[in-house]
Design goal:
The protein is mostly helical. It is built from 9 helices and no strands. Helix 3 packs across helix 6, helix 5 runs antiparallel to helix 6 and helix 6 runs antiparallel to helix 7. The chain is elongated. The two termini are 31 Å apart. The relative contact order is 0.15.
């Protein structure tokens, strides 16, 4: 998990819970019926909107997007330079021994295709197809979480209406007004928290992670094609450095 995610979770939930406890007991904000309306209703509406396999798969995508760590671009450049030097000295088949140390499955597959002697154009087509699949998978995950972020406040309002109806129907019984009002208010609270602290931030994280991951994968493809072409290590390095962000002074 990256530091921004940790800081965001602690800040968002920590400040909300702290403000609740400063004003009274946190037990006042616990309501099983409200949770059932918001969480159950949001998941149900999402299942209506998307196929079951997509909804079940999105949680795996979210976990990988939030907790996965990318290989730094500088480390990728150094690794490809080493591969290029070894390939030029000992032949591309010598890279077979390096595959055991490669943890990234995409990079490992690309290097293996180069070792197998595929044409650079064929390698590019295969790897670009996989990149497109990764992009679509993250886009679908972000869309599902964005949809959940839209449904959650709406279900909160539905719960509020349920609580108000129950309250108005029991005005002659003061003992039942409190629980009905709590349901009315807490469902709106839960819907807002679920949308703005959970679903929408995860959707944004998925989009950001997708851009970063796709950029790294595009860089890997360029390096793999250079290996297949037998490019000079210095030329390979210059091609890969084009993927690095410009220094702030130059960008300004």
């Amino acid at each position: 998990m990256d530091i921004a995610t940790i800081a965001g979770v602690i800040a968002a939930f920590g400040l909300v819970i702290s403000s609740i406890m400063m004003g009274g007991s946190i037990d006042l904000f616990l309501s099983i019926p409200s949770l059932m309306v918001v969480i159950g209703g949001t998941l149900g509406a999402t299942l209506i909107n998307f196929p079951l396999k997509d909804v079940l798969g999105v949680f795996s995508v979210a976990r990988n997007a939030v907790f996965a760590t990318d290989i730094p671009i500088s480390d990728l450049i150094s690794r490809f330079i080493e591969y290029a030097n070894k390939s030029r000295k000992e032949g591309i088949l010598s890279l077979e021994s390096e595959l055991a140390t490669v943890k990234d499955s995409f990079l490992k597959k690309g290097v293996q295709l180069s070792i197998d002697g595929l044409e650079p154009q064929d390698i590019n087509e295969i790897m670009e197809t996989e990149i497109e699949f990764i992009r679509n998978r993250h886009q679908l995950g972000a869309e599902i979480f964005s949809t959940m972020g839209t449904f959650a406040p709406a279900l909160g309002m539905i719960g509020t209406l349920i609580g108000l109806v129950q309250m108005l129907q029991n005005m002659d019984d003061p003992s039942r007004i409190g629980p009905s009002m709590a349901l009315a208010l807490l469902t709106t609270f839960y819907g807002s928290v679920m949308a703005n602290i959970v679903c929408l931030p995860i959707a944004g994280k998925l989009r950001a992670r997708s851009k970063t991951e796709v950029q790294a994968k595009e860089m890997m493809v360029q390096g793999i094609i250079s290996l297949a072409n037998g490019d000079n290590p210095r030329i390979l390095e210059q091609k890969l450095r084009a993927f690095m962000p410009a220094p702030k002074a130059e960008a300004a």
